[in-house]
Amino acid sequence: MRQTLRRRLQALAAATALGAVLASCAIPIPEVDADPAPTDPVPVMDESRLERVLTSLEETIAAADEAGDATLLESRVAGAALRVRTAEYALATATASSDAPYVVQPLTGLADVEIISNTESWPHTIMVVTEIPDGANVPLLLTLEQTTPRDPYLLTNWIRLFPAITMPATSIGSIGSPQVPLDAEGLVLPPGQVVAAYADVLTNSASQYAPTFAEDNLRTALAAELTGLSTAVEEAGTVANTVSASADPILTLATDDGGAIVIGSMAMAQVFTKTVEDATLEVGGRLEILAGGDGEIDETLTATYEQMVAFYVPPAAEGAQITVLGGEHVLTAVAKA
């Protein structure tokens, strides 16, 4: 028994000695330093992921367009874009048998230029200048928003760029573009004031902000339409446009020259008022159709339009003006009183 115990003790001593030798020969495990935090901002999304998002968006829109069903858009479309597309489906259905049926605007997710924000906070904003969609003659400017890290990117605006418009230069995709604070100074107007100021210009030709904006296609077209309508109804009544900024978020991304691309939405109420008691005041076309097929106005008729508009706001300088890059203008409702 003593021999057995002695052998065990000798084995234990040998194992301990071997352990000591191995410990003395062991190679120290190097400590791994954590990756340093990036010193430069980076885009919130890479191009391959953005391509997948845009492909999914295009497929969703195609399915909804084919069915004429706006509920199919809700997984990928929100805000002004969803309201306008819903109105377009309603217009197309209501006017299908008329002499001038409404054609839903062609959309595409095929990107030509990608402007990706590099903010570390949410929401994240991405703007995409598309290729020219089939059936159209100008490219689109899309806005995509991600509200929280767990939310998908949703299309919130699409805007047809005006012919001959040159988009301001922005940072390349590997760097990304900062989102500009709505109260940022040093611009012709702070971004948060741009949409409301432009709405005032569309409402009032003598607006104090009129010189702040260069002439543009939307402003010119609405002024010409209002002049023509006023002449047409002057023997029986009046017509007036009132435009106001919507409650939708105003989106911004910086340009390379220190300016900003600003995108927002507005609502326009076009009000026809009968002022001559014995006269007849009537509207036709789509207004008549959405009024239930009766275009005669006893008191007032209000046509409501949704507008999505994009602006380039340059740095403040003598003579600098805000450029309207493009817009979308769609009839959404008609009501009589």
TrEMBL record:
PROSITE patterns with a match to the protein in the record: PROKAR_LIPOPROTEIN, TAT
Pfam families from the UniProt entry: DUF8094
Signal peptide: 1-26
Domain of life (superkingdom): Bacteria
Domain DUF8094: 42-323
Keywords: Signal
Name used for this protein in its record: DUF8094 domain-containing protein
